[in-house]
């Protein structure tokens, strides 16, 4: 039985259920490091040469600059709307709601792209290993069912599942790295990929365009503020940990990939068989059994990413539902699992409809579905990072007393410039992401987020004119008001007597 709770503090999620490690699992799992390395790193080598490892490190350093202002602002944003809340604080409610729609659309497109890739990879893997030959969309729908069950249940269950899957995919790459290093690579270990003549080349812009896509989504740490242990500490720690891990791990593994074939042959090997680059390395240095394990773990990597995106999208629906911008039912939580179960079911339905539509259209699940939707989602999320950086700078420059922070403002300005350059590079090299030179597809990839932002801004203006009480409360929900002081540290933790839930089963 559903019992709407529209007044006072809306339904609260499972308080103090996630620590920094759990949130890092959600964010890094969404990045799908194994899938990114196997599917994307060879492309980085093709477009940038052996200097590609430095490109990932550079993208990580720029993301870390963004994280400085982002985490500083986390202390002043007691709302789990992430981009929506952060941009609203500095640039206003109209820009905030426009950003919210871009965020929901961006994450949804990234998830849909992952469904396409997951379906194709799983179909090939199951056919080769067990002889089961089913269309890609059947496996995508099976994944949607699994994600739906896990998303419906407690966030604690999802965190445990993601933790196991993420550790496994990281371990298989580390096994490859240890084997390559132990055997000295193809022609000896060296640091040539980091030499200036290999890094500062005319093609490094293309490498950065590819590299930044691998970091998209790390700001989702703020989406879990409502469920974090001591959010003022947990969210910043998780953000820095996620960015730092991804930067170092990506850089290290791509360097290992270069060493596996040698600096003289790595690019040629990537050109000859980009899809099989890492599998060939694993076969050469570890063996066929490990190669088979890697193929299976790519499937689980995709499933982990789907679950992480699912939880991120439902948290946006939950945040917007609390403020009645979207139907308030999206903010209802399950009495037992304390999950935003209606938002979860809604998100699953959206994913299923999208998969079926693409299946009916008979598009290629990788070259069209995955490439086209991922490119648009990446542009949208990166553009929101750019706007968030500006919002951080504005917020701390004009802030009064406790909210004035010159260092945070400078970090915001620096990130605004650096991410602006990154966004320009991604758009300029958009054909690398879309895998096509079709001008219509490439234009839609960068223009769609702009159109969605404008629609969101128009919606905000309509709400201001027709529903002023809703407009007045946009971005004002204080999720920390449910918290009680920790007697040991003084920080706020979960209020044990908070009333949760709307459903018993």
From TrEMBL:
Tell me which domain of life the UniProt entry assigns to the organism this sequence originates from: Bacteria
Pfam families given in the database record = AA_permease
Decide whether keyword Endoplasmic reticulum is in the record.
no
Predominant location of this chain? Answer: membrane
Name the keywords, alphabetized.
Answer: Membrane, Transmembrane, Transmembrane helix
Amino acid permease/ SLC12A domain location: 23-455
Cell compartment(s), UniProt: Membrane
Its placement in the membrane is given as:
Multi-pass membrane protein
Give positions of region: Disordered: 482-505
Gene3D superfamilies referenced in this protein's UniProt entry, alphabetically = Amino acid/polyamine transporter I
Transmembrane residue ranges: 23-48, 54-73, 94-116, 136-155, 162-182, 202-226, 238-258, 296-318, 338-361, 373-396, 408-427, 439-463
> Which PANTHER family does the record cross-reference, listed alphabetically?
AMINO ACID PERMEASE, AMINO ACID TRANSPORTER-RELATED
Q: What is this protein called?
A: APC family permease
- State the organism of origin: Rhodococcus sovatensis
């Amino acid at each position: 039985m559903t019992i709407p709770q529209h007044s006072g503090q809306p339904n609260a999620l499972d308080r103090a259920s996630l620590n920094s490690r759990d949130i890092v699992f959600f964010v890094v799992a969404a990045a799908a490091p194994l899938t990114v390395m196997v599917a994307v790193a060879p492309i980085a080598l093709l477009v940038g040469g052996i200097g590609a490892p430095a490109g990932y490190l550079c993208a990580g350093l720029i993301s870390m600059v963004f994280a400085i202002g982002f985490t500083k602002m986390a202390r002043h944003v007691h709302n789990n709307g992430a981009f929506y809340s952060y941009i609203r604080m500095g640039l206003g409610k109209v820009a905030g709601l426009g950003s919210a729609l871009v965020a929901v659309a961006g994450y949804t497109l990234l998830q849909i792209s992952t469904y396409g890739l997951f379906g194709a990879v799983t179909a090939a893997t199951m056919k080769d290993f067990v002889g089961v030959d089913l269309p890609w969309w059947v496996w995508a729908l099976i994944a949607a069912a699994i994600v739906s069950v896990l998303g419906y249940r407690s966030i604690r269950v999802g965190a445990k599942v993601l933790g196991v899957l993420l550790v496994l995919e990281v371990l298989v790459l580390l096994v490859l790295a240890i084997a390559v290093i132990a055997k000295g690579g193809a022609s000896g270990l060296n640091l040539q990929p980091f030499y200036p003549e290999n890094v500062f080349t005319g093609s490094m812009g293309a490498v950065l365009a590819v590299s930044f896509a691998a970091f998209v989504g790390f700001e989702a740490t703020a989406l879990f503020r409502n469920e974090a242990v001591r959010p003022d500490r947990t969210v910043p720690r998780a953000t820095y940990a996620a960015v730092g891990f991804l930067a170092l791990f990506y850089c290290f593994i791509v360097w290992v990939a270069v060493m596996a074939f040698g600096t003289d042959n790595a690019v040629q090997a990537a050109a000859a068989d980009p899809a099989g680059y890492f599998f060939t390395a694993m076969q050469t240095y570890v063996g066929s059994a490990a190669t088979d394990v890697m193929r299976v773990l790519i499937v689980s990597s995709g499933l982990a990413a789907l679950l992480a995106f699912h939880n991120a999208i439902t948290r946006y629906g939950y945040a917007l539902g609390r403020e009645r911008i979207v139907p308030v039912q999206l903010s209802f939580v399950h009495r037992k699992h304390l999950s935003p179960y209606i938002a979860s079911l809604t998100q699953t339905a959206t994913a299923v409809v999208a998969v079926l539509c693409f299946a009916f259209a008979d598009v290629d699940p990788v070259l069209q579905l995955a490439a086209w939707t991922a490119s648009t989602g990446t542009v949208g999320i990166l553009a929101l990072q750019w706007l968030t950086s500006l919002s951080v700078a504005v917020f701390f420059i004009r802030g009064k007393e406790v909210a004035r922070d010159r260092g945070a403002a400078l970090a915001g300005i620096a990130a605004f410039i650096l991410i602006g350059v990154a966004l320009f590079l991604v758009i300029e090299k958009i054909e690398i992401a879309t895998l096509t030179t079709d001008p219509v597809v490439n234009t839609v990839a960068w223009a769609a987020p702009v159109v969605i932002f404008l629609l969101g801004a128009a919606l905000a203006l309509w709400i201001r004119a027709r529903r002023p009480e809703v407009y007045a409360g946009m971005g004002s929900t204080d999720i920390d008001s449910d918290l009680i002081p920790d007697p040991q540290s003084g920080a706020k933790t979960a209020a044990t007597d908070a009333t949760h839930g709307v459903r018993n089963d």
